[in-house]
Amino acid sequence: MRFHRVASRTPKTIPNQPMPWIKARERAFARRGAKDLADIMRIFGLGATATGRLFDVSRQAVDQWLVHGVPLGRLADVGQIAQAARAVYTYFRPERIPQIVMEPIPGLGGRTVLDVAKREPRRIVELVEATRSYVPPAA
Question: Across the chain, how many H-helices and E-strands are there?
């Protein structure tokens, strides 16, 4: 038996560049919170100006958040209101939601759902759950 000598191969050098999936992950992380913000706008039927009022920022800031992501200090606010928006979306007809959230409601002290969501987003989720499980009294 004859053994052939295999020439040793030198490993190819890998350029010092992140792989495409790492770049994609970085891009996704950079836009953190943008999907939640877009969901809020879509579900509640809000434009950039109304969304800015909801978060006490300018319309331009909302546009920047959609492109570059929500600042870390505001991620929790956006996440909680997005959760409330999704709860409303789950139990109400989508075409009725903008009217529901923008009209003053006597049970909320004459405030709108958006006013309450701005200060107490968890309360909206609780109200939706209470509405869903409401059973009218027997006549």
Answer: 8, 0
